[in-house]
Design goal:
Shape: globular
Helix content: over 70%
Radius of gyration: 19 Å
Number of helices: 9
Strand content: under 5%
Order of helices and strands: HHHHHHHHH
C-alpha cells in the first residue's frame, strides 16, 4: 500500500475513532475530569488536530488515480449533493440534537422544515455528501475519506439517539416517535422555502468553490462553466 494512502487511512481512523469515543464511552469520564467547559475545549482541540491530519494527509495522497464513473457518476453526484445541502442548511435552526437550552422544548414541538424528512438532517447531509463522492470513483484518497465521513455521520446519528434518550428522557422519546432516522423523501416537498433556498445557494456556492479549491469543476458548473 502506498505510504501516503496508509497515512490517510490512519488519519481518518483517528478522526472517526476519537470523535465517536469522546462523544460516547469517554464523554462521562472526560466531563467529570475536565468539567463541561473543559470537555468542550478538549473535544474541540482533539477534533481539530485529527481533522488537520486528515487534511494534510489527503492533499499529500495521489489524486485521480481511479478510473471514475463517467458522466453518469457526475450527474448522480450532482443530484445527491443538492438534498445534502438542503438538509445541512435546515439543520442549523430548531435542532434538539444540538446542545442548546431550548433543546427539550424543540424536541416536544411538532417537526418542521427538514426535520419532517429526518431527525438527523445534519448527519444525513454529510452522509449524502459522502455518497456523492463515492459514486464518482475518482481517487483512492476521496474514497477513503468519504467512507470515513459517511460512516461517522450515519453511525454517529444512530449512537446519538441512544445518548439523547439518556440525557433528555421522555422529550427525546417523543421526538423519536414524531420523526424518523431514515430520510422520508416524500417530505422534501414540505421542508419550506428557507431550507430550500439556503440549501440551493449553499449547493451552488460549494460546487463553484470546488473548482477553485480542487481544480475540478463540480455540480452544475461542470456543464455551465
Amino acid at each position: 500500500m502506498d505510504s501516503a494512502i496508509a497515512n490517510l487511512i490512519a488519519a481518518n481512523i483517528a478522526f472517526v475513532g476519537s470523535h465517536l469515543a469522546m462523544s460516547h464511552p469517554l464523554r462521562g469520564a472526560m466531563v467529570k475530569a475536565l468539567g463541561a467547559s473543559g470537555f468542550q475545549i478538549g473535544y474541540s482541540l482533539v477534533s481539530l488536530a485529527a481533522l488537520a491530519w486528515v487534511y494534510f494527509a489527503f492533499i499529500a495522497a495521489p489524486g485521480a488515480d481511479l478510473p471514475g464513473s463517467g458522466e453518469a457518476g457526475w450527474v448522480l453526484a450532482t443530484l445527491l449533493t443538492w438534498p445534502a445541502m438542503v438538509l445541512l442548511a435546515g439543520s442549523l435552526a430548531g435542532n434538539p440534537a444540538l446542545p442548546t437550552p431550548q433543546a427539550e422544548a424543540q424536541a416536544r414541538a411538532e417537526p418542521r422544515g427538514v426535520f419532517r424528512v429526518t431527525r438527523h438532517p445534519m448527519m444525513w447531509g454529510i452522509g449524502l455528501w459522502a455518497a456523492s463522492h463515492l459514486v464518482l470513483f475518482w481517487s483512492t484518497r476521496t474514497m477513503v475519506t468519504a467512507l470515513a465521513m459517511g460512516f461517522l455521520a450515519l453511525v454517529g446519528a444512530h449512537l446519538q439517539d441512544a445518548k439523547k434518550a439518556a440525557q433528555m428522557g421522555a422529550a427525546w422519546e417523543e421526538w423519536s416517535r414524531k420523526t424518523s432516522y431514515w430520510p422520508r423523501l416524500g417530505q422534501f416537498a414540505r421542508v419550506g422555502a428557507v431550507p430550500l433556498v439556503a440549501g440551493t445557494v449553499l449547493w451552488l456556492g460549494a460546487s463553484w468553490l470546488h473548482l477553485w479549491r480542487a481544480g475540478i469543476p463540480a455540480g452544475v458548473w461542470k456543464w455551465l462553466g
